[in-house]
Amino acid sequence: MDALTITCIYINLGTLMIAFLENIFIIVVNFLDFCEKRRLPISDQLILGFSVSSLLHGLQKWYILCKCLLNLPRNEYDMKATHVFMYLNLCTLMFSALLSLHFCLKIVNINHRFYIGAQRKCPKLFPWIIIAFPLGFFFLNLFSALEISPECLQNTTFTIIVAIKMSPRCSWSLLFFSTFCILCASFCSVSASTIIFSLFKHMKTIHGNSEGSRSPNMDAHIRAVKTVTSLLAANIFIFISTTILRYILSFPLGILISISHIFSSYFLIKGTKKLDKALAEIVNRCITRRKK
């Protein structure tokens, strides 16, 4: 293992540690709020689901990186862990896509029958969507794990093109994964484009208004654009690292994925009053203790 790869692994571990702290903070705050109020709004449900899946995905990635760093041999557990890693990838992508769609439906108003119907009906589908999708992915991934042959997972390139050449059994699960990555990236890109277009339209509307650029609606637009863009970047990097590029390039792309998740979690914290308030209280307590 060369010095560049080792450096990338250490940077990966460092970015994962930052992402861990953000995800744990979001999970703890939402859990305490749920214990107090016995309910969570849709936005908080999606943010909590994204943080849990991102945390588990990061822990799995931490294990893989540590094993690469120690140069340990692959065993039977690693074959099963590959499917777990793909499942956690799917869950993370799903929650990021649902978050992007939710922000778009919540912030942007479009005078179209289909869009208005989606705004009214989508909130009624929660939390069943959050339960149904992970369960569906679990059973699909379980079926794939039972059918796929071990030599498919021993391939170091782990790309769709190589898998198709090896065996149809190697290709269908990866094709399913890549298809879902494309769908998630499409949802995020459409949502981001819609929010950005609505933001510029809103800026033109309030131009010259006394509220100026400090309009609360505009601030919500800007926060949503930042969050959706970071989620979209993570989706694209995951898709590229898993389905197109070779194994050796997965380390630098892993850094970009972790950085994208760091920014998305940060924007989610700053964009949610409850999380932002809790973070401000923690920072103030730390400053007060240092002064003492």
From TrEMBL:
Superkingdom of origin organism: Eukaryota
Keywords attached to this entry:
G-protein coupled receptor, Membrane, Receptor, Sensory transduction, Taste, Transducer, Transmembrane, Transmembrane helix
Q: Where in the cell is it found?
A: Membrane
Membrane topology, as annotated, equals:
Multi-pass membrane protein
Q: Which GO terms describe its cellular component?
A: membrane
Q: Name one GO molecular function term.
A: bitter taste receptor activity
KW Disulfide bond (keyword) present: no
User: Pfam families from the xrefs?
Assistant: TAS2R
Annotated signal peptide: none
Q: What are the transmembrane regions?
A: 12-34, 84-105, 125-146, 174-200, 220-241, 247-269
Family (UniProt)? Belongs to the G-protein coupled receptor T2R family.
Q: What is this protein called?
A: Taste receptor type 2
Q: What high-level taxonomic lineage is stated for the organism?
A: Eukaryota, Metazoa, Chordata, Craniata, Vertebrata
